[in-house]
Amino acid sequence: MEGPNKVMEYRGHTIRLRPHQGRCSLFAMDIVNKEGKVVKYTMAAGKTEEIALENAKKWIDFDLEYEGQG
Fold this sequence. Notes:
Mean pLDDT: 91
Largest sheet: 4 strands, antiparallel
Order of helices and strands: EEEEH
Helix content: 25-40%
Number of strands: 4
Structural class: alpha+beta
Strand order of the largest sheet: 1-2-3-4
Number of domains: 1
């Protein structure tokens, strides 16, 4: 599955989605923190772009809450 990447900012992080057909998923994603470090990567982000973005936001929210920054 080929296609353009989608990039969005959320709570100081950058979410990058790309089409990737895998088991139970059509999107891969990585999350980059303020320092430019990839803090999360998965090849199974979700079956739709909307679900993949929602999952990325949940990971960011969880990480910030865990770090006491939420």
